[in-house]
Specification:
mainly alpha; two-stranded antiparallel sheet; about 240 residues; 8 helices
Length: about 240
């Protein structure tokens, strides 16, 4: 996200600050323009309700995150290189398990997409669940993935609402582990995994080259007793 720190405000206080900031715009302009009012995004119904369905969604979302959604082109990858290749997913050649800094024209600065295992998501509500475990709002994650964020992140709702929900559940499963033992273990395993490079191209078939030579009819070959050229040897003619 941006370099701005987060503030722990109550809902009433946060609303008051937002309303005060809106007064910086002239009447009828900017935040105070009726014409430019943005409608609240429509959140589709989550098709994954019980624990078994959510588990299936996480498995699907894991592949979509690294595959067709290409989330790991900006955010870190959370599977090893061999799995990325098996899914035919795009692989960043440098530091695939770290975030990629992105230039934002809106903020005129460089933004760092969050690593869900290590960084908080400022656009997503999160609270402590049982035994101190984080419990992020999956609807907020869906909104961010479906409609994007102002800055370099686009929306992906055009790829299908059910698929977006699957990715949202997968991201939640990562974010809920943030800075925990499981998160540290997963990152350590990824960093320790061997690099799997693409296979080298097969060498040229020598027999095919020989066959192409034989296919040339009446090719003149110099004999052992005939010089290859009648031109004088400059080394012999030199004084």
């Amino acid at each position: 996200g941006t370099g701005m720190r987060g503030w722990l405000l109550q809902e009433r206080e946060l609303h008051a600050v937002v309303q005060y900031i809106k007064t910086f715009s002239y009447d009828g302009k900017g935040f105070r323009s009726e014409r430019l009012k943005v409608k609240a995004p429509v959140i589709a119904e989550d098709p994954y309700q019980d624990q078994e369905q959510i588990a299936d969604a996480i498995v699907l979302g894991r592949e979509l995150y690294h595959g067709s959604f290409q989330c790991s082109s900006c955010h870190p990858a959370y599977v090893d290189v061999a799995q990325l290749q098996a899914w035919q997913a795009a692989l960043r050649p440098l530091a695939p398990f770290d975030s990629v800094p992105k230039w934002s024209e809106n903020y005129n600065t460089v933004l760092l997409p969050p690593d869900f295992l290590r960084h908080p998501m400022r656009s997503v509500a999160g609270s402590a669940g049982h035994v101190g475990q984080l419990d992020h709002d999956v609807r907020d994650i869906y909104r961010s993935v479906a409609f994007g964020l102002q800055g370099p992140m686009p929306g992906f709702v055009h790829l299908g609402e059910d698929k977006v929900w699957a990715v949202a559940h997968y991201v939640k499963s990562l974010a809920d582990q943030r800075q925990g033992q499981e998160a540290r273990a997963l990152r350590a395993a990824l960093l320790a995994a061997p690099d799997v490079s693409p296979p080298a191209p097969a060498p040229a078939d020598a027999s095919a080259a020989d066959a192409s030579d034989e296919a040339v009819p009446n090719a003149e070959q110099p004999s052992a007793s005939t010089p290859a050229s009648s031109a004088p040897d400059p080394l012999q003619s030199a004084p």
